[in-house]
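Following up on my earlier message about 2-phosphoglycolic acid. Here are the inputs again, as you asked, copied directly from the submission form:
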Amino acid sequence: MRNELIAANWKMNLHRSEAVGLARACRTMAATGRNGREVLIAPPYPYLAAVREALEGSPVLLAGQDVSQYAEGAYTSQVSAEMLVDVGCRYTLAGHSERREHSGDSDDVVAAKMRRAFDCGLNVILCVGEKEAERDRGEERSVVRRQIDAALGAVSREEAAGRLVVAYEPVWAIGTGRTATSADAQEMHAFLRGVLAGRYDTGLAEEIRILYGGSVKPANAAELLGANDIDGVLVGGASLDAESFNAIFAA
Ligand code: PGA
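Thanks, got it. Here's what our run produced:
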């Protein structure tokens, strides 16, 4: 049985007091322990420490929105995997489409980031997903397969077991209000599970959680989460409001 993961990606939003307030609301929400669901928050870097403090003693997981591919040194503005661990993160995102799009994260860079994260003991939510034009050309499967193969090239079975989460986030659905239908998402999730089975084995592929992301909101969460191979959601916009994130968690 895969425990569902309800993950919040706050992106570059909120001020410190709002971040702390929202973290407290997530803490209260997670304490209800709905269906064994886990809750994870990825705040902006400057608020990690304050959010961690607000979450002290709660099961809510803390994550970086990204991680440097380098261990340390002269990389102005970057944050290392060790720093994330040091500030209390158990997870990091890697390969989010906004990083791929606006910050030039190539498949190779994403692979290097995964390597650093696993080496430092972090769990990783690897984000993959096709752009609208790629879907229009019928390339969605080959795109996500390429992204998975590149990112997991150097990730062993032992590392992937229990420490890897995949998030399928079709780029055309992120922040656009357009969501994949649960049938379309389910089809891609089943495909991704097959790719993981080919890389590792069926047993491990059955254990790896595959989240859906892209305009998840209270109105579509239950249907998405009801699909067989959708093991949670990665929520951007709707995670910035306690009420709507709570409604997704309770969906
Ligand atoms: P969205 O973002 O829910 O605002 O579409 C999802 C994501 O980018 O992780």
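One observation from looking it over: The longest strand covers residues 123-128. Hope that helps, and feel free to reply on this thread.
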